Amino acid sequence: MKFQSTSAAAALLLGQAFGYPLPSSNLLRREVPQEHSHDLFLTITNEALAKNNPKGITDAVFGLLGNAAAAGGAGSVTNLDCLKQETADQAFTNGKAAKDLRLMAGALVYQALERNTGKVGLASVTCTETAVNPEIEAVKPHQDPASANAASINKGITLELAKQLKAIGADPNLALLSGTFAPGDLNDATAKGNTCDDTDPQLGCIFTTGKLVLDASQDEVASAVSAVSQTFTGTGGIQATDLVDLSKFSVQGGAAAPTDNSNAATTSQAAAQATPPPAAQASSTQAAAATQTQAASSGSAPSTASGNNVQTFTGSLGGPAPPVVSGTGNRPFSVNGNTFVNIGAALGRSCDIQHNACADAANSGQLSGGVGQCDDQNIQCKAAASGATNTNASNTSNTSDNASSSGSNNAASGNNADSGNAGNDNAGSSAATGDFGSCSDPSIKFANGLDGRTEPAFAPVNEADFNHGSALAIKVISDFICDRLNSSCKASAAVVSTCQSASAAASQLTGQAAADAFNKALGV
Protein backbone atom coordinates (compact mmCIF):
# COMPACT_ATOMS: atom_id res chain seq x y z
CA MET A 1 0.00 0.00 0.00
CA LYS A 2 0.94 3.64 -0.22
CA PHE A 3 0.80 5.83 2.82
CA GLN A 4 -0.11 9.47 3.26
CA SER A 5 1.73 9.96 6.51
CA THR A 6 5.07 9.02 7.96
CA SER A 7 3.35 7.63 11.04
CA ALA A 8 1.49 5.10 8.92
CA ALA A 9 4.69 4.05 7.19
CA ALA A 10 6.42 3.73 10.53
CA ALA A 11 3.52 1.66 11.79
CA LEU A 12 3.97 -0.73 8.89
CA LEU A 13 7.64 -1.23 9.72
CA LEU A 14 6.87 -1.70 13.39
CA GLY A 15 4.23 -4.29 12.64
CA GLN A 16 6.50 -6.24 10.33
CA ALA A 17 9.46 -6.04 12.70
CA PHE A 18 7.45 -7.68 15.44
CA GLY A 19 5.53 -10.04 13.18
CA TYR A 20 1.94 -8.97 13.83
CA PRO A 21 -0.54 -7.81 11.20
CA LEU A 22 -1.85 -4.26 11.12
CA PRO A 23 -5.52 -3.62 10.38
CA SER A 24 -5.97 -2.07 6.97
CA SER A 25 -8.18 0.63 8.45
CA ASN A 26 -5.10 2.13 10.11
CA LEU A 27 -3.40 2.71 6.78
CA LEU A 28 -4.34 5.21 4.09
CA ARG A 29 -4.11 3.95 0.52
CA ARG A 30 -2.56 5.91 -2.30
CA GLU A 31 -1.95 5.65 -6.06
CA VAL A 32 0.47 3.10 -7.51
CA PRO A 33 3.17 1.88 -7.26
CA GLN A 34 2.29 0.01 -4.10
CA GLU A 35 5.15 -1.52 -2.22
CA HIS A 36 3.57 -4.96 -2.35
CA SER A 37 3.48 -4.91 -6.14
CA HIS A 38 7.19 -5.63 -6.59
CA ASP A 39 8.02 -7.04 -3.14
CA LEU A 40 10.86 -9.23 -4.38
CA PHE A 41 12.98 -6.33 -5.57
CA LEU A 42 12.41 -4.28 -2.45
CA THR A 43 13.46 -7.30 -0.43
CA ILE A 44 16.67 -7.75 -2.40
CA THR A 45 17.44 -4.02 -2.23
CA ASN A 46 16.94 -4.02 1.53
CA GLU A 47 19.25 -6.99 1.84
CA ALA A 48 21.96 -5.21 -0.14
CA LEU A 49 21.43 -1.96 1.77
CA ALA A 50 21.88 -3.77 5.09
CA LYS A 51 25.49 -4.58 4.18
CA ASN A 52 26.51 -0.91 4.43
CA ASN A 53 24.03 1.89 5.04
CA PRO A 54 26.02 5.03 5.90
CA LYS A 55 23.04 7.37 5.46
CA GLY A 56 20.78 5.32 7.67
CA ILE A 57 17.99 4.81 5.14
CA THR A 58 15.28 2.93 7.02
CA ASP A 59 13.85 0.84 4.21
CA ALA A 60 13.71 0.77 0.42
CA VAL A 61 9.94 1.28 0.53
CA PHE A 62 10.40 4.93 1.50
CA GLY A 63 12.00 5.63 -1.86
CA LEU A 64 8.70 4.76 -3.54
CA LEU A 65 6.62 7.15 -1.43
CA GLY A 66 5.83 10.82 -1.85
CA ASN A 67 8.15 13.23 -0.08
CA ALA A 68 5.96 13.73 2.99
CA ALA A 69 5.92 10.02 3.77
CA ALA A 70 9.46 9.40 2.52
CA ALA A 71 10.91 11.81 5.08
CA GLY A 72 10.16 9.34 7.86
CA GLY A 73 12.65 6.79 6.52
CA ALA A 74 15.18 8.89 4.62
CA GLY A 75 17.92 8.84 7.24
CA SER A 76 20.39 11.63 6.46
CA VAL A 77 19.23 12.01 2.84
CA THR A 78 17.89 15.56 2.49
CA ASN A 79 16.86 15.65 -1.17
CA LEU A 80 13.78 13.44 -0.95
CA ASP A 81 13.29 13.53 -4.71
CA CYS A 82 16.52 11.52 -4.86
CA LEU A 83 15.91 9.13 -1.95
CA LYS A 84 15.03 6.29 -4.29
CA GLN A 85 18.18 6.82 -6.36
CA GLU A 86 20.32 7.09 -3.22
CA THR A 87 18.86 3.81 -1.98
CA ALA A 88 19.46 2.02 -5.28
CA ASP A 89 22.95 3.51 -5.60
CA GLN A 90 24.10 2.32 -2.18
CA ALA A 91 22.51 -1.10 -2.66
CA PHE A 92 24.23 -1.49 -6.03
CA THR A 93 27.56 -0.40 -4.55
CA ASN A 94 27.25 -3.02 -1.81
CA GLY A 95 26.27 -5.74 -4.27
CA LYS A 96 29.16 -4.88 -6.55
CA ALA A 97 31.63 -5.00 -3.68
CA ALA A 98 30.39 -8.52 -2.92
CA LYS A 99 30.36 -9.42 -6.65
CA ASP A 100 26.78 -10.53 -6.08
CA LEU A 101 24.78 -10.34 -9.32
CA ARG A 102 21.51 -10.97 -7.53
CA LEU A 103 21.94 -7.91 -5.33
CA MET A 104 23.19 -5.76 -8.20
CA ALA A 105 20.31 -6.77 -10.46
CA GLY A 106 17.78 -6.22 -7.67
CA ALA A 107 19.07 -2.69 -7.09
CA LEU A 108 18.87 -1.87 -10.79
CA VAL A 109 15.29 -3.11 -11.07
CA TYR A 110 14.35 -1.22 -7.90
CA GLN A 111 15.76 1.97 -9.42
CA ALA A 112 13.42 1.51 -12.40
CA LEU A 113 10.23 1.02 -10.34
CA GLU A 114 7.53 3.66 -10.50
CA ARG A 115 7.43 6.13 -7.62
CA ASN A 116 4.23 7.19 -5.91
CA THR A 117 2.49 10.40 -6.99
CA GLY A 118 -0.56 12.20 -5.66
CA LYS A 119 -3.01 11.39 -8.43
CA VAL A 120 -3.56 9.20 -11.46
CA GLY A 121 -1.64 10.50 -14.46
CA LEU A 122 0.82 12.63 -12.51
CA ALA A 123 4.46 11.95 -13.37
CA SER A 124 6.97 11.79 -10.54
CA VAL A 125 9.64 14.44 -10.01
CA THR A 126 13.00 13.66 -11.60
CA CYS A 127 16.07 13.40 -9.39
CA THR A 128 18.64 15.92 -10.64
CA GLU A 129 21.62 14.54 -8.71
CA THR A 130 24.18 12.25 -10.35
CA ALA A 131 24.40 8.70 -9.05
CA VAL A 132 27.75 7.29 -7.98
CA ASN A 133 27.32 4.22 -10.18
CA PRO A 134 26.88 4.91 -13.91
CA GLU A 135 24.62 1.86 -14.16
CA ILE A 136 22.17 3.40 -11.69
CA GLU A 137 22.51 6.80 -13.34
CA ALA A 138 21.52 5.31 -16.69
CA VAL A 139 18.23 3.91 -15.34
CA LYS A 140 15.30 6.20 -14.57
CA PRO A 141 12.08 5.36 -12.70
CA HIS A 142 8.92 4.33 -14.53
CA GLN A 143 6.22 6.97 -14.76
CA ASP A 144 2.53 6.65 -14.02
CA PRO A 145 1.15 4.71 -17.00
CA ALA A 146 -1.62 7.28 -17.42
CA SER A 147 0.80 10.22 -17.61
CA ALA A 148 1.78 11.94 -20.86
CA ASN A 149 3.86 9.78 -23.23
CA ALA A 150 4.18 7.13 -20.51
CA ALA A 151 4.10 4.22 -22.96
CA SER A 152 7.17 5.35 -24.89
CA ILE A 153 8.96 6.68 -21.80
CA ASN A 154 8.50 3.48 -19.83
CA LYS A 155 9.49 1.32 -22.78
CA GLY A 156 12.72 3.27 -23.12
CA ILE A 157 13.39 2.87 -19.41
CA THR A 158 12.85 -0.89 -19.59
CA LEU A 159 15.15 -1.34 -22.59
CA GLU A 160 17.87 0.78 -20.97
CA LEU A 161 17.54 -1.28 -17.80
CA ALA A 162 17.90 -4.44 -19.89
CA LYS A 163 21.17 -3.10 -21.33
CA GLN A 164 22.56 -2.35 -17.88
CA LEU A 165 21.57 -5.81 -16.65
CA LYS A 166 23.25 -7.44 -19.64
CA ALA A 167 26.41 -5.40 -19.05
CA ILE A 168 26.84 -6.70 -15.50
CA GLY A 169 26.14 -10.29 -16.54
CA ALA A 170 22.54 -10.45 -15.30
CA ASP A 171 19.41 -11.57 -17.13
CA PRO A 172 18.19 -8.66 -19.30
CA ASN A 173 14.63 -10.00 -19.20
CA LEU A 174 14.48 -9.03 -15.53
CA ALA A 175 13.92 -5.53 -16.89
CA LEU A 176 10.44 -6.58 -17.99
CA LEU A 177 9.54 -7.20 -14.34
CA SER A 178 10.06 -3.51 -13.53
CA GLY A 179 6.90 -2.62 -15.44
CA THR A 180 3.75 -1.26 -13.91
CA PHE A 181 -0.02 -1.58 -14.24
CA ALA A 182 -2.40 -0.64 -17.04
CA PRO A 183 -3.22 3.10 -17.12
CA GLY A 184 -5.78 4.24 -14.58
CA ASP A 185 -8.71 6.61 -15.01
CA LEU A 186 -7.59 10.24 -14.97
CA ASN A 187 -10.91 11.15 -13.34
CA ASP A 188 -10.45 8.68 -10.49
CA ALA A 189 -11.04 10.82 -7.41
CA THR A 190 -9.55 8.17 -5.12
CA ALA A 191 -6.13 8.51 -6.82
CA LYS A 192 -5.80 4.75 -6.49
CA GLY A 193 -5.61 3.85 -10.17
CA ASN A 194 -5.03 0.25 -11.18
CA THR A 195 -3.35 -1.39 -8.22
CA CYS A 196 -2.97 -4.49 -6.14
CA ASP A 197 -2.58 -4.69 -2.40
CA ASP A 198 -2.00 -8.35 -1.66
CA THR A 199 0.99 -9.24 0.46
CA ASP A 200 3.15 -11.62 -1.52
CA PRO A 201 6.78 -11.34 -0.36
CA GLN A 202 7.79 -14.24 -2.59
CA LEU A 203 7.34 -12.11 -5.70
CA GLY A 204 4.89 -9.24 -5.51
CA CYS A 205 1.19 -9.00 -6.18
CA ILE A 206 1.58 -7.38 -9.60
CA PHE A 207 2.97 -10.72 -10.77
CA THR A 208 0.72 -13.16 -8.93
CA THR A 209 -2.47 -11.27 -9.86
CA GLY A 210 -1.42 -11.01 -13.50
CA LYS A 211 -1.66 -7.21 -13.51
CA LEU A 212 1.84 -6.53 -14.82
CA VAL A 213 1.85 -4.94 -18.27
CA LEU A 214 5.13 -5.54 -20.09
CA ASP A 215 6.66 -2.41 -21.63
CA ALA A 216 8.32 -4.43 -24.39
CA SER A 217 8.43 -7.93 -25.79
CA GLN A 218 11.23 -10.40 -25.16
CA ASP A 219 12.19 -10.00 -28.81
CA GLU A 220 12.59 -6.26 -28.32
CA VAL A 221 14.72 -6.84 -25.24
CA ALA A 222 16.92 -9.32 -27.11
CA SER A 223 17.34 -6.83 -29.95
CA ALA A 224 18.12 -3.94 -27.59
CA VAL A 225 20.90 -5.82 -25.78
CA SER A 226 22.36 -7.63 -28.79
CA ALA A 227 25.31 -5.24 -29.08
CA VAL A 228 25.93 -4.93 -25.32
CA SER A 229 29.07 -6.62 -23.98
CA GLN A 230 29.44 -7.94 -20.48
CA THR A 231 31.82 -5.77 -18.45
CA PHE A 232 31.52 -7.38 -15.02
CA THR A 233 31.87 -10.90 -13.67
CA GLY A 234 30.04 -11.83 -10.51
CA THR A 235 28.35 -14.82 -8.95
CA GLY A 236 24.78 -15.84 -8.24
CA GLY A 237 21.88 -14.18 -9.98
CA ILE A 238 18.26 -14.79 -10.90
CA GLN A 239 16.38 -15.18 -14.15
CA ALA A 240 13.02 -13.73 -15.05
CA THR A 241 11.77 -17.10 -16.27
CA ASP A 242 12.63 -18.64 -12.90
CA LEU A 243 10.17 -16.23 -11.32
CA VAL A 244 7.28 -15.88 -13.76
CA ASP A 245 6.06 -17.09 -17.12
CA LEU A 246 6.50 -13.92 -19.16
CA SER A 247 4.24 -15.23 -21.92
CA LYS A 248 1.27 -14.96 -19.55
CA PHE A 249 1.47 -11.17 -19.32
CA SER A 250 0.20 -8.70 -21.88
CA VAL A 251 2.60 -6.41 -23.70
CA GLN A 252 1.84 -2.72 -23.97
CA GLY A 253 -0.91 -2.37 -26.58
CA GLY A 254 -1.54 -6.14 -26.71
CA ALA A 255 -4.14 -8.53 -25.35
CA ALA A 256 -5.22 -8.54 -21.74
CA ALA A 257 -3.25 -10.63 -19.28
CA PRO A 258 -4.85 -13.39 -17.22
CA THR A 259 -6.01 -12.53 -13.73
CA ASP A 260 -5.33 -15.78 -11.90
CA ASN A 261 -2.10 -16.79 -10.21
CA SER A 262 -0.97 -19.23 -12.90
CA ASN A 263 1.66 -16.82 -14.17
CA ALA A 264 3.77 -17.20 -11.06
CA ALA A 265 6.48 -19.81 -11.49
CA THR A 266 5.84 -21.32 -8.08
CA THR A 267 8.20 -24.22 -8.55
CA SER A 268 11.11 -21.86 -8.95
CA GLN A 269 10.20 -18.85 -6.82
CA ALA A 270 12.54 -20.12 -4.17
CA ALA A 271 15.41 -19.98 -6.66
CA ALA A 272 15.47 -16.26 -5.99
CA GLN A 273 15.59 -16.84 -2.26
CA ALA A 274 18.33 -17.59 0.17
CA THR A 275 18.73 -18.21 3.88
CA PRO A 276 16.72 -15.57 5.80
CA PRO A 277 18.83 -12.91 7.55
CA PRO A 278 18.96 -12.52 11.32
CA ALA A 279 15.72 -11.11 12.71
CA ALA A 280 17.50 -7.97 13.83
CA GLN A 281 18.22 -7.09 10.22
CA ALA A 282 14.72 -7.78 8.90
CA SER A 283 12.80 -4.78 7.56
CA SER A 284 9.59 -4.11 5.71
CA THR A 285 9.64 -6.81 3.05
CA GLN A 286 12.96 -8.38 3.88
CA ALA A 287 11.94 -11.13 6.26
CA ALA A 288 9.86 -13.39 4.03
CA ALA A 289 11.49 -13.70 0.62
CA ALA A 290 14.70 -13.72 -1.39
CA THR A 291 17.09 -12.83 1.40
CA GLN A 292 20.60 -13.07 2.66
CA THR A 293 23.09 -14.05 -0.02
CA GLN A 294 25.77 -16.45 1.12
CA ALA A 295 29.01 -14.88 -0.06
CA ALA A 296 31.37 -17.28 -1.77
CA SER A 297 34.50 -17.86 0.31
CA SER A 298 38.00 -17.79 -1.11
CA GLY A 299 38.30 -21.52 -0.66
CA SER A 300 36.38 -24.65 0.18
CA ALA A 301 35.89 -23.98 3.87
CA PRO A 302 34.67 -26.72 6.18
CA SER A 303 31.90 -24.58 7.62
CA THR A 304 30.16 -21.21 7.42
CA ALA A 305 28.27 -19.04 9.84
CA SER A 306 25.03 -20.86 9.06
CA GLY A 307 26.06 -24.45 8.33
CA ASN A 308 28.65 -26.85 6.95
CA ASN A 309 30.19 -26.52 3.50
CA VAL A 310 29.64 -29.83 1.72
CA GLN A 311 31.43 -28.85 -1.50
CA THR A 312 34.57 -31.00 -1.44
CA PHE A 313 35.90 -30.32 -4.94
CA THR A 314 39.25 -28.55 -4.72
CA GLY A 315 39.91 -27.55 -8.35
CA SER A 316 40.54 -23.82 -8.56
CA LEU A 317 40.85 -22.78 -12.22
CA GLY A 318 39.11 -19.43 -12.43
CA GLY A 319 38.53 -19.55 -8.68
CA PRO A 320 37.21 -22.20 -6.29
CA ALA A 321 33.72 -23.62 -6.56
CA PRO A 322 31.54 -21.56 -4.19
CA PRO A 323 30.56 -23.21 -0.91
CA VAL A 324 27.49 -25.40 -0.69
CA VAL A 325 26.14 -24.66 2.76
CA SER A 326 24.15 -27.44 4.40
CA GLY A 327 21.57 -26.21 6.85
CA THR A 328 18.01 -27.04 7.87
CA GLY A 329 14.51 -26.46 6.53
CA ASN A 330 12.64 -27.48 3.41
CA ARG A 331 15.46 -26.22 1.15
CA PRO A 332 18.51 -26.95 3.30
CA PHE A 333 21.29 -26.39 0.76
CA SER A 334 22.43 -22.91 -0.26
CA VAL A 335 24.84 -21.66 -2.94
CA ASN A 336 25.51 -17.95 -3.32
CA GLY A 337 22.07 -17.12 -2.02
CA ASN A 338 20.09 -19.70 -4.00
CA THR A 339 18.55 -22.58 -2.04
CA PHE A 340 17.91 -26.19 -3.05
CA VAL A 341 15.98 -29.20 -1.83
CA ASN A 342 18.72 -31.74 -2.54
CA ILE A 343 22.48 -31.77 -2.32
CA GLY A 344 22.97 -32.83 -5.93
CA ALA A 345 21.26 -29.74 -7.31
CA ALA A 346 23.27 -27.48 -5.01
CA LEU A 347 26.60 -29.09 -5.88
CA GLY A 348 25.72 -28.90 -9.57
CA ARG A 349 25.03 -25.18 -9.25
CA SER A 350 28.33 -24.65 -7.45
CA CYS A 351 30.19 -26.44 -10.24
CA ASP A 352 28.40 -24.42 -12.92
CA ILE A 353 29.21 -21.11 -11.25
CA GLN A 354 32.87 -22.10 -11.12
CA HIS A 355 32.78 -23.19 -14.77
CA ASN A 356 31.31 -19.89 -15.90
CA ALA A 357 33.88 -17.89 -13.97
CA CYS A 358 36.66 -20.03 -15.41
CA ALA A 359 35.36 -19.66 -18.98
CA ASP A 360 35.02 -15.89 -18.55
CA ALA A 361 38.62 -15.70 -17.32
CA ALA A 362 39.86 -17.84 -20.22
CA ASN A 363 37.96 -15.84 -22.81
CA SER A 364 39.17 -12.52 -21.43
CA GLY A 365 42.80 -13.64 -21.41
CA GLN A 366 43.12 -13.60 -17.63
CA LEU A 367 43.60 -17.37 -17.66
CA SER A 368 45.85 -19.01 -20.22
CA GLY A 369 45.14 -22.42 -21.71
CA GLY A 370 41.70 -21.89 -23.23
CA VAL A 371 38.19 -22.82 -22.20
CA GLY A 372 38.71 -26.56 -22.69
CA GLN A 373 40.46 -26.85 -19.35
CA CYS A 374 37.42 -25.25 -17.73
CA ASP A 375 35.21 -27.88 -19.33
CA ASP A 376 37.49 -30.65 -18.03
CA GLN A 377 37.44 -29.16 -14.56
CA ASN A 378 33.65 -28.95 -14.68
CA ILE A 379 33.41 -32.65 -15.55
CA GLN A 380 35.62 -33.44 -12.56
CA CYS A 381 33.54 -31.19 -10.32
CA LYS A 382 30.31 -32.84 -11.46
CA ALA A 383 31.84 -36.27 -10.89
CA ALA A 384 32.72 -35.28 -7.33
CA ALA A 385 29.20 -33.93 -6.92
CA SER A 386 27.75 -37.21 -8.13
CA GLY A 387 29.78 -39.08 -5.54
CA ALA A 388 28.61 -36.76 -2.79
CA THR A 389 25.03 -37.16 -3.98
CA ASN A 390 25.25 -40.93 -3.73
CA THR A 391 26.81 -40.67 -0.29
CA ASN A 392 23.94 -38.50 0.86
CA ALA A 393 21.23 -40.54 -0.85
CA SER A 394 19.33 -40.86 2.41
CA ASN A 395 18.71 -37.12 2.41
CA THR A 396 17.06 -36.98 -1.00
CA SER A 397 15.62 -39.15 -3.74
CA ASN A 398 16.53 -39.55 -7.38
CA THR A 399 19.18 -36.84 -7.07
CA SER A 400 21.28 -38.19 -9.91
CA ASP A 401 18.53 -37.16 -12.31
CA ASN A 402 17.96 -33.85 -10.57
CA ALA A 403 21.60 -33.09 -10.00
CA SER A 404 21.87 -29.57 -11.31
CA SER A 405 19.89 -26.40 -10.96
CA SER A 406 21.96 -24.45 -13.41
CA GLY A 407 18.97 -23.01 -15.25
CA SER A 408 19.07 -19.83 -13.15
CA ASN A 409 22.77 -19.26 -13.68
CA ASN A 410 21.54 -16.11 -15.33
CA ALA A 411 22.20 -17.52 -18.77
CA ALA A 412 25.87 -17.54 -17.83
CA SER A 413 26.62 -19.69 -20.83
CA GLY A 414 25.09 -16.93 -22.88
CA ASN A 415 27.35 -14.45 -21.13
CA ASN A 416 30.32 -16.60 -22.01
CA ALA A 417 29.12 -16.54 -25.58
CA ASP A 418 29.31 -12.76 -25.50
CA SER A 419 32.99 -13.04 -24.71
CA GLY A 420 33.72 -15.58 -27.39
CA ASN A 421 32.83 -18.90 -25.83
CA ALA A 422 30.07 -19.73 -28.28
CA GLY A 423 32.43 -21.48 -30.60
CA ASN A 424 33.01 -24.38 -28.23
CA ASP A 425 31.76 -27.81 -29.13
CA ASN A 426 30.44 -28.32 -25.62
CA ALA A 427 26.89 -28.23 -26.89
CA GLY A 428 27.16 -31.60 -28.54
CA SER A 429 29.29 -33.43 -26.01
CA SER A 430 26.75 -34.56 -23.43
CA ALA A 431 26.67 -38.26 -22.76
CA ALA A 432 23.23 -37.87 -21.22
CA THR A 433 21.50 -36.44 -24.28
CA GLY A 434 17.89 -37.62 -24.36
CA ASP A 435 17.36 -37.70 -20.59
CA PHE A 436 14.75 -34.95 -20.48
CA GLY A 437 13.17 -35.95 -17.19
CA SER A 438 9.38 -35.90 -17.29
CA CYS A 439 9.36 -34.00 -20.60
CA SER A 440 9.99 -35.03 -24.18
CA ASP A 441 11.26 -33.42 -27.38
CA PRO A 442 12.78 -30.04 -26.44
CA SER A 443 13.46 -29.20 -30.09
CA ILE A 444 12.91 -25.79 -31.68
CA LYS A 445 11.26 -25.11 -35.03
CA PHE A 446 11.86 -22.19 -37.38
CA ALA A 447 8.84 -21.50 -39.55
CA ASN A 448 6.58 -18.94 -41.17
CA GLY A 449 3.17 -17.97 -39.86
CA LEU A 450 3.79 -18.70 -36.18
CA ASP A 451 1.34 -16.80 -33.95
CA GLY A 452 0.17 -14.84 -36.99
CA ARG A 453 3.61 -13.40 -37.69
CA THR A 454 4.45 -12.27 -41.22
CA GLU A 455 8.11 -13.19 -40.79
CA PRO A 456 9.66 -16.56 -39.86
CA ALA A 457 10.21 -17.12 -36.16
CA PHE A 458 11.31 -19.68 -33.58
CA ALA A 459 9.03 -21.69 -31.28
CA PRO A 460 9.10 -24.94 -29.29
CA VAL A 461 7.96 -28.00 -31.24
CA ASN A 462 6.52 -29.61 -28.12
CA GLU A 463 4.01 -27.04 -26.90
CA ALA A 464 2.63 -29.39 -24.25
CA ASP A 465 5.85 -29.46 -22.23
CA PHE A 466 7.29 -26.14 -23.41
CA ASN A 467 4.37 -23.74 -23.68
CA HIS A 468 5.84 -20.53 -25.05
CA GLY A 469 4.85 -18.23 -27.89
CA SER A 470 7.06 -17.66 -30.90
CA ALA A 471 10.04 -15.29 -30.89
CA LEU A 472 12.31 -13.72 -33.48
CA ALA A 473 15.41 -14.42 -31.39
CA ILE A 474 16.18 -18.10 -30.79
CA LYS A 475 17.70 -17.37 -27.39
CA VAL A 476 14.30 -16.34 -26.04
CA ILE A 477 13.03 -19.85 -26.83
CA SER A 478 16.18 -21.84 -26.10
CA ASP A 479 16.73 -20.23 -22.69
CA PHE A 480 13.10 -20.90 -21.81
CA ILE A 481 13.47 -24.56 -22.80
CA CYS A 482 16.64 -24.91 -20.73
CA ASP A 483 14.94 -23.34 -17.73
CA ARG A 484 11.93 -25.61 -18.10
CA LEU A 485 14.15 -28.70 -18.45
CA ASN A 486 15.77 -27.75 -15.18
CA SER A 487 12.76 -26.64 -13.16
CA SER A 488 9.65 -28.49 -14.29
CA CYS A 489 11.00 -31.43 -16.26
CA LYS A 490 13.72 -32.30 -13.74
CA ALA A 491 16.09 -33.27 -16.53
CA SER A 492 19.55 -34.57 -15.73
CA ALA A 493 22.36 -32.19 -14.87
CA ALA A 494 24.22 -33.09 -18.04
CA VAL A 495 21.22 -32.30 -20.25
CA VAL A 496 20.61 -28.94 -18.58
CA SER A 497 24.28 -28.03 -18.97
CA THR A 498 24.25 -29.16 -22.60
CA CYS A 499 21.10 -27.16 -23.25
CA GLN A 500 22.66 -23.98 -21.88
CA SER A 501 25.76 -24.44 -24.01
CA ALA A 502 23.59 -25.17 -27.04
CA SER A 503 21.52 -22.06 -26.39
CA ALA A 504 24.62 -19.89 -26.28
CA ALA A 505 26.02 -21.43 -29.45
CA ALA A 506 22.74 -21.23 -31.36
CA SER A 507 22.35 -17.56 -30.48
CA GLN A 508 25.39 -16.85 -32.65
CA LEU A 509 23.59 -18.29 -35.70
CA THR A 510 20.46 -17.29 -37.59
CA GLY A 511 17.37 -18.90 -39.06
CA GLN A 512 17.14 -22.64 -39.62
CA ALA A 513 20.85 -23.05 -38.94
CA ALA A 514 20.32 -21.82 -35.38
CA ALA A 515 17.44 -24.22 -34.79
CA ASP A 516 19.38 -27.11 -36.33
CA ALA A 517 22.41 -26.42 -34.13
CA PHE A 518 20.33 -26.37 -30.96
CA ASN A 519 18.40 -29.51 -31.87
CA LYS A 520 21.52 -31.42 -32.90
CA ALA A 521 23.22 -30.60 -29.61
CA LEU A 522 20.31 -32.13 -27.72
CA GLY A 523 20.05 -35.10 -30.04
CA VAL A 524 16.52 -34.30 -31.25
Mean pLDDT: 74
- Tally of helical segments: 16
Structural class: mainly alpha
Distance between the termini: 49 Å
Q: How many strands?
A: 9
- Strand fraction equals under 5%
Shape: globular
Helicity level: 25-40%
Rounded to an integer, what's the Rg over CA atoms? Answer: 22 Å
What's the SSE pattern? HHHHHHHHEHHEEEEEEHHHEEHHH
Secondary structure layout plus pairing:
Layout: H1 6-18, H2 39-49, H3 67-70, H4 83-97, H5 101-112, H6 134-138, H7 150-168, H8 205-208, E1 213-214, H9 218-225, H10 240-243, E2 250-251, E3 303-304, E4 307-309, E5 325-326, E6 333-335, E7 338-340, H11 343-364, H12 372-391, H13 412-418, E8 444-447, E9 457-460, H14 474-487, H15 493-506, H16 511-521
Parallel strand pairs: 1-2
Antiparallel strand pairs: 3-4, 4-5, 5-6, 6-7, 8-9
How does this model look, in words?
By secondary structure, the protein is mainly alpha-helical. The protein folds into 3 domains: 6-272, no CATH class; 300-404, no CATH class; 416-524, no CATH class. The protein is built from 16 helices and 9 strands. The chain has helices spanning 6-18, 39-49, 67-70, 83-97, 101-112, 134-138, 150-168, 205-208, 218-225, 240-243, 343-364, 372-391, 412-418, 474-487, 493-506, 511-521; strands at residues 213-214, 250-251, 303-304, 307-309, 325-326, 333-335, 338-340, 444-447, 457-460. Strands 3-4-5-6-7 form a 5-stranded antiparallel β-sheet, with helices on one face. Strands 1-2 form a two-stranded parallel sheet. A hairpin with a 2-residue loop joins strand 6 and strand 7. Helix 4 (83-97) packs antiparallel against helix 5 (101-112) and helix 7 crosses helix 9 (218-225). The radius of gyration is 22 Å and the shape is globular. It starts with 5 loop residues before the first helix and ends with a helix. The model is unreliable at 1-34, 255-306 and 393-434 (pLDDT under 50). This is Cell wall mannoprotein. Residues 254-330, 387-434 are annotated as: Disordered. InterPro entries: Appressorial_penetr-assoc (IPR053216). Residues 1-19 form the signal peptide. Residues 264-306 have a biased composition (Low complexity).
